[in-house]
Design brief:
CATH topology of the largest domain: Rossmann fold
CATH superfamily of the largest domain: NAD(P)-binding Rossmann-like Domain
Radius of gyration: 19 Å
Low-confidence stretches: 1-5
Number of domains: 2
CATH architecture of the largest domain: 3-Layer(aba) Sandwich
Number of strands: 11
Mean pLDDT: 90
Helix content: 25-40%
Structural class: alpha/beta
Distance between the termini: 30 Å
Number of helices: 8
Shape: globular
Strand order of the largest sheet: 3-2-1-4-5-6-11
């Protein structure tokens, strides 16, 4: 489909990197089900072997074993990255180099990684949205934690995820930690928030933020019980990322 044809239909052509993974499969299905979007590329290393990595909802989409192959094929409006921490920075920089806006759901990017991405994205004027969590409830949890931090001087975070999650602490926990500590620094407090990680079968994605005060505690908890809980945020990010400038961290910036 040409750029002209895309403009006439108003449908965005989306590539999903990590399409054979848990989040990637759900994302592919959600993109296919959305009338405003076209699944234009399903990207995953397992697709190097045509007999592996079947993604039912991506059956009609071109499949690529490497992101570079999909970008070279051209005519993608947005890339969504749900790969692995070891690959995500390189993937984002490749998208920036090819002038394709990217939505990043993969966690594990360090402060140095984000600084490099920010510099490249700003220079190339390519939008990059990094969202540690796409669930609306998780975004609200972090906002509530910031408000609570104004009134409590002690806080710890417990994040719990499925056994296959590689990075720890999670991106959501690290972002919550940073926001609480930022509030404390604004009032002259140099305290740190301890983060505890749990990885067990049966879990999906959960976080508990516990504040302690004199004779009381305040607990803020969010539970994602299925990966579908992230999809409304993913779709919103796909549709809004092109309105952004450079690197933006956090789904709350487009709500």
């Amino acid at each position: 489909m040409s750029a002209k044809e895309r403009g006439e239909t108003g449908r965005l052509r989306v590539g999903v990197s990590g399409a054979a993974g848990r989040m990637g499969r759900v994302t592919c299905g959600t993109v296919v089900a959305d009338y405003d979007l076209i699944l234009a590329a399903a990207i995953d290393p397992v697709f190097v072997d045509a007999g592996r990595g079947k993604v039912d909802t991506a059956a009609a989409a071109p499949r690529f074993a490497a992101l570079g192959e999909a970008l070279a094929a051209g005519d993608l409006d947005v890339i969504v990255d749900f790969t692995v921490p070891a690959a995500v920075k390189g993937n984002v920089l490749l998208c920036v180099e090819n002038k394709v806006p990217v939505v990043v759901g993969t966690t594990g990017l360090s402060t140095a990684d984000l600084a490099e991405i920010e510099g490249r994205a700003d220079a190339a004027r390519v939008p990059v949205l990094v969202a540690p969590n796409f669930a609306l409830g998780a975004v609200l949890m972090m906002r509530f934690a910031e408000e609570a931090a104004k009134h409590f001087g002690a806080c710890e975070i417990v994040e719990l995820h499925h056994a296959d999650k590689i990075d720890a602490p999670s991106g959501t926990a690290r972002l919550t930690q940073r926001r609480v500590e930022d509030v404390w620094r604004e009032v002259g407090e140099g305290r740190e928030v301890a983060v505890h990680s749990v990885r067990l079968p049966g879990l999906v994605a959960h976080q508990v933020v516990i504040f302690g005060g004199q004779g009381e505690t305040l607990t803020i908890r969010h539970d994602s019980l299925s990966r579908e809980s992230f999809m409304s945020g993913v779709i919103l990010a796909i549709k809004r990322v092109r309105e952004l400038q450079g690197l933006v961290v956090g789904l709350e910036n487009i709500l």
